[in-house]
Specification:
The protein is of the alpha+beta class and 158 residues long. The protein has a single domain, classed as Sufe protein. Chain: A. The chain is globular, with a radius of gyration of 14 Å. Bound molecules: zinc ion (ZN). Zinc ion binds next to helix 2.
Length: 158
């Protein structure tokens, strides 16, 4: 198990060092700013839908801790090519994973590297930030904070 944890940590550090899709799309059809005041993570997510309503391009910009940045990087990779509905479903799945509600969700692929985050409650917000921003972009919510209910999450919250 510790080997697996080490591997997970490596993946997070690698994405932090070389984030994917880092930058801002000038041609964005959807965008939102996400802020986690607890940690200081601050990102902008910009994306462009194609004629079929799929995410053609997506990027994130800003700065934050290793976990928030790695999560943002992996989020952009995970939702590329997805429709809004598919991307939002993935957001919900990811939020369940980082809250420890579905630790064995293997359908999330390499996003399972965040499966142990729930043990560190402050880090759950770091991991979820870019995903909240993505939800905000689709909902046309300009600014999303982890400390407000600006994003609508289905189901009971604690
Ligand atoms: Zn953070």
């Amino acid at each position: 198990m510790s080997n697996q944890l080490e591997l997970y940590q490596q993946v997070i550090l690698e994405h932090n060092r070389k984030p994917k899709n880092f930058g801002t799309l000038e041609s964005a059809t959807h965008k939102a700013e996400g802020f986690n005041p607890i940690c200081g993570d601050h990102f902008w997510v910009t994306l462009e839908l194609d004629a079929e309503g799929r995410v053609a391009r997506i990027a994130f910009d800003g700065s934050g801790c290793a976990i928030s940045k790695a999560s943002a990087s992996m989020m952009t990779e995970a939702v590329k090519g997805k429709t809004e509905a598919e991307a939002l479903a993935l957001c919900a799945q990811f939020h369940h994973l980082v809250k420890g509600e579905s630790p064995e969700d293997t359908s999330l692929g390499k996003l399972v590297v965040f499966a142990n985050i729930w043990k560190y409650p402050a880090r759950v917000k770091c991991a979820g930030l870019a995903w909240h921003a993505l939800q905000g972009a689709f909902a046309k919510t300009a600014v999303v904070s982890t400390e407000t209910d600006a994003t609508t999450e289905k189901g009971p919250s604690t």
